[in-house]
Hints:
The chain is an alpha+beta fold. Helices cover about 30% and strands about 30% of the residues. The strands form three sheets. The protein has a six-stranded mixed sheet with strand order 1-11-2-3-10-9. A six-stranded mixed sheet has the order 8-7-4-5-6-12, with helices on one face. β9 and β10 form a beta hairpin. The longest helix has 18 residues. The protein starts with a strand and ends with a strand.
Amino acid sequence: MTTETTGAVSAALPGQDTLQKFIFDNAAVRGQFIDVSHTWQEVVSRHAYPTAVKKVLGEMVAAAALLSANLKFNGSIIMQIHGDGPVRLMVVECDSDLRLRATAKLDPDAAIADGATVPQLLNATGKGRFIITLDPADKVPGQQPYQGIVPLDGDDMATVIENYMLRSEQLDTRLWLATDDTVSRGLLLQKLPHHGGKAEATPVSEEDALDTWNRAVMLASTLKEAEILSTDIDTLMQRLFWEETIRVFDPLHPSFHCSCTREKVGNMLKMLGEEEVNSTLEEIGHVGVNCDFCGQHYDFDKVDCAQLFVTDAPAEVLIPPAASIN
Length: 326
C-alpha cells in the first residue's frame, strides 16, 4: 500500500478513539475507518440494553461519526429511528467536534431475543422511520434544522444508511459496521461525482474511476464482522488496500460528551407546559428529570418551576424525548 499523508500523523493516545480519513489517488473515491470503542463503552456503562439493541445502537454510533466527519458546518448531526416494534426510539447525536452521545427507548414489556434484527426491533408493522437532522450551531433568524425522513428500509443498520444516502443525497455510499459490548468499529466508502480528472496531476477517465470504486467495494466486502471487531484500523487498512495508492489524512479523535444542561432541561419543561408541570408538583412536590443520554439528574422544586414560566423567552429543545421525568 502506497500512502501519502497530509501532515504529521499523530497516533491515538491510550483511551482515545480514532477516525481515519483517506482517498484513493486520482479517483473520486474516499473512505474512512473508525474505532469508537471507548465512546461506545461510555454509552453502554450508562444503560442496560439487551444484546440486540446494543448491536444496532453501537453501529449507529460508529455510522453517525463517519457521516459527521464529512459535514462542512458547525453543528450537529442527529440520527434517529422511530420504531413500531419493541424498540420505540434510537437516537445518536454527533457534533462537528465528533463528540457523541446515544440512547434508546424500549417498550417496558418488550422481550427481545439476542439475534433480533432491525426490522424485528424497529419495523414490526412497516411504520418505522429513519431520520437524519442537521442542526447548525449558529442559526440565522428563522433558520430551521434540515431534516430528512425516509422509511426504515433495510435488514441491518448499514443497509438502512446506504439506502438513505442514495435516496436523500444521491451519493453512492457503502458501510461495514460491527459492534459488541466493548468494541464499535466501521468503514465507510463513498463514490464522489467524477469531474474528468481536470484538477489532478494525472487525469483519470470515468471508466477508471468506476473501476477503482468497484474494486474498493469488492475488497471491503471481504471483511467479516469478527475481523472488524478484533483488528485495529491500521491493520485493516493494510490488509484491504495494500496494492492501492491512497492519501491518508491526519486522524481525528471522537469522544463521548453529553450536552445536557439545567437550562436545556428547564426549556424542555417549558415545552411541556405550566399545567403539566404544576400537576407533577401537586402530586410529588418537585419535578425530577433524568437525562436519557448520560443519566444526569436534575431536580426542580416549586420555586424553580415558577421561575421557568415568569419569562417569555422561547423554549427550544431539538429532541424532547431526551429526558425522563419522575
